[in-house]
Amino acid sequence: MIKSIEWIKSGTAKIVDVRTPGEFMGGHVAGSINIPLQELPHRLDEIRQMKNIVLCCASGGRRLSFIIGHCM
Fold it and tell me: To pair with 50 at 20 to 30 A between CA atoms, which of 3, 10, 23, 33?
């Protein structure tokens, strides 16, 4: 978590918004990209090439469900 904050403050974070495209279009962090949660497992090769990745969603639940299901 602390690394994520450092990356965001320094502008080196790659913010991946895991909400639906409709939610993303309703407002998102400037410079973030939208990869909906359901697409993440199919785009792991793309994601692995990124550095300083910070996943975000509306409340944190979707982000955590991906981390627990795929990274632990």
Answer: 23
